[in-house]
Amino acid sequence: MGRLSGKRAIITGAGSGIGRASTLLFAAEGARVLAVDKVAEAAAETARMAGSAGEPVLSTAADAATESEVAACVEQAVSELGGLDIIYANAGISGGVTPLLDQSVESWTEILRVNLIGPFLAIKHAAPVMMRQQTGGSIICTASLAGMRGGGSTASYAASKAGVISLVQNASHNLMGTNIRVNAICPGLIETGMTRTLFERARERRTEGRIGHLNPLQRAGQPQEIAGMALFLASDEASYVNGQAIAVDGGHGSGLPFHRWRP
Ligand SMILES: NC(=O)c1ccc[n+]([C@@H]2O[C@H](COP(=O)([O-])OP(=O)(O)OC[C@H]3O[C@@H](n4cnc5c(N)ncnc54)[C@H](O)[C@@H]3O)[C@@H](O)[C@H]2O)c1
After folding, report:
1. Which positions are annotated as active-site residues?
2. For residues 253 and 149, what is the distance between their CA atoms, to the nearest angstrom?
């Protein structure tokens, strides 16, 4: 028996990084997963990678921030997986590194659309299915440490992720009495497609040892370390965890970055 045996899940942004690692882990733990990504081939590759080690993974191409496409994904899960117990609204974009005073309304609109309205749509379309099933459910959104503290990213990205934290806090109350739990994971710096350039440049300059040097664990994280938290939140082990924004950041957000204490 896997930790998600019998559960049906949608994971967005499943074609890379955290979404791919979570899809592979959920399937290995017995969930039937619909892997969603805007890039069809990437989602299909994740499904292929899941192989035969766990439950087979379905894949589909969709924009996780377009309402009709999110609704279609939920319908597909109901018809092809037989229902929906978990949705992990993980798809997100960084929006680049343009300084605040040079950012445009268009770039703010797009980052809020994907990073904040996307998770809202996941909740809006998944929760009614879970309520009809009367089996409760787990909704997980990927926020960021950048949504908890300033200075870790562009202002538009940080604001979109702070919005996700508020969204899960409020959605958990809006879904009162349904036994649907809504939580956010706030990753620190994780090596994924989104951060690839940073890691590649550091390796070229031989400064990769400095990545994460202000973090008590003194390293960046790997996608599997976020997938582990997603697995916990998706599972019945987290049955009393609701409305929370949980940092998975090696301790980076727990203190001020001034001192490098030595044991
Ligand atoms: N990597 C980090 O350091 C880090 C830190 C904090 C939070 N996050 C968040 O983690 C989540 C996953 O990002 P990642 O780091 O794995 O990056 P990634 O770029 O490796 O993966 C993101 C995936 O989402 C897909 N995607 C993007 N927009 C989409 C859309 N509109 N519809 C469907 N799919 C879409 C991409 O095609 C890609 O496959 C994001 O929400 C990101 O903001 C990442």
Report:
1. 157
2. 7
Report helix, strand and coil shares of the chain as percent, to nearest 5: 45, 15, 40
CATH code, 241? 3.40.50.720
* Ligand 1 pocket, mutate which of 194, 215, 246 (most atoms under 8 A from CB): 194
Structural domain range at position 232: 8-192+222-250
Q: How confident is the model at residue 55 (pLDDT cuts 50, 70, 90)?
A: confident
The yes-or-no verdict on residue 214 having pLDDT over 90 is: no
Structural domain includes residue 42 = yes
HSE at residue 57, side-chain half, CA atoms within 13 A, is 35
Regarding the beta carbon of 34 and ligand 1, being less than 6 Å apart is answered no
Prediction pTM value? 0.97
> Is residue 74, in this structure, part of any structural domain at all?
yes
State the Cα–Cα distance between residues 67 and 71, nearest whole angstrom.
Answer: 6
| pLDDT at 177 > cutoff 90 | yes
**Residue 53 lies inside a defined structural domain of this protein:** yes
Pocket lining: 20 vs ligand 1, CB cutoff 6 Å: no
Predicted pLDDT of residue 263: 67
Q: What type of residue is 19?
A: G
* pLDDT at residue 52, rounded to an integer: 76
Ligand 1 and 192: CB distance under 6 A: yes
Ligand 1 centroid to Cα of residue 254, in Å, is 24
> Could you tell me if residue 31 is inside a domain?
yes
